[in-house]
Amino acid sequence: MTDLDALREIVRKAGELALSYYGRVTPSEKPDQSFVTEADKAVEDFLRSELARCFPGVEVLGEEVESGVEKDVAWVVDPIDGTANFVAGVPIWAVSVGLVEHGTPTMGAVYYPAFGELYIAQKGKGAWLSDRGTQGMLQMRRIFARQDNRIRHDDLLGLSTLSIKRMKVNLPCKVRSLGTAVACFTFVAKGSFIGGVLTDNRVWDIAAGWIIAKEAGADVIYLLTGEPIEKLALNRDQLPPQLVAPPQFIDTLRKGIQFG
Predict the structure, then answer these.
(1) For labelling, which of 80, 95, 235, 246 has a CA lying 20 to 30 Å from the CA of 37?
(2) Residues in the chain, pLDDT under 70
(3) How many CA atoms does the CB half-sphere of 122 hold within 13 Å?
(4) What pLDDT digit, counting tens, does each position of 215-255 carry?
(5) What Å distances lie between residue 207 and 167, 244, 252, CA to CA?
């Protein structure tokens, strides 16, 4: 079994654990007023245990455990990205795990258990999606970001929950906020979104999605400066606004999005 196979299996099992709580949790509020549930904590504990077993010696930086890491190689874990959706019974939520080495995401997996899509990527090996085919069996296929040059009226631009409150979009497309940051990356990676805009997030919101989007042919940049995001710090600091999109759409999207 390769490292990517092991990661995929860990994230799949973590997703099934999360699914066992789905629809029967009572949330509490964190200091930032976002929800947290017993499912978030149970899934992060499971991920920490399984990652330590399969990848001994590699530290874990997670959303729910208030601790940092000492080395520059670590797994970055968001046990349930989209907890508000999870609590409300909306099926768009994901388990997200990325490996960051010396600032660069090199491997990642994102699993949406409620509708069975599992995205994986490793540096230099492409981005892949496992989903339920017509016969109900899991099928794996390579995915790519949009490769055409035209933005159409019915194309979709993803905005994270807080960014939709702070952005004005003047583009010939429709805007969707799905309630989970990592969806901006994975749905760009498979060509469903022409781009995604994220604000007020942290490294666990971006690490796995970053490598999946990059391996699918998208760019990840800082929205306000246009500079590529090449390194991620392994800390709990808030990140500047980001844009993920195929390279041919970057300039048009930046010109059509006002931030304020």
Answers:
(1) 235
(2) 27, 29-35, 132-138, 260
(3) 8
(4) 999 999 999 999 999 999 999 999 999 999 999 999 999 99
(5) 23, 13, 25
- Tokens 């981005």 locate to 127
Give the number of residues written for the chain. Answer: 260
Pick the closest to residue 163 from 235, 242, 57, 252 (CA basis). Answer: 242
pLDDT digits (tens, 9 = 90+) for 101-119: 999 999 999 999 999 999 9
H, E, C per residue of the chain: CCHHHHHHHHHHHHHHHHHHHCCCCCCEECCCCCEECHHHHHHHHHHHHHHHHHCCCCEEEECCCCCCCCCCEEEEEEEEECHHHHHHCCCCCEEEEEEEECCEEEEEEEEECCCCEEEEEECCCCEEEEEECCCCCEEEEECCCCCCCCCCCCCEEEECCCHHHHEEECCCCEEECCCCHHHHHHHHHCCCCCEEEECCCCHHHHHHHHHHHHHCCCEEEECCCCCECCCCCCCCCCCCCEEEECHHHHHHHHHHEEEC
The tokens for 248 are 């041919």
